[in-house]
Amino acid sequence: xSLSSQSFxxxxxxxxxxxxxxxxxxxxxxxxxGC
Length: 35
Fold this sequence. Notes:
Blueprint lengths: L1 H10 L2 H18 L4
């Protein structure tokens, strides 16, 4: 999902992406159903 990915990266700073990525790992189903 490039659209969701872009929106997410724009919403969160690059540094925080790593942190959010870990959160998204277990929250992925709620945040990104596609991933």
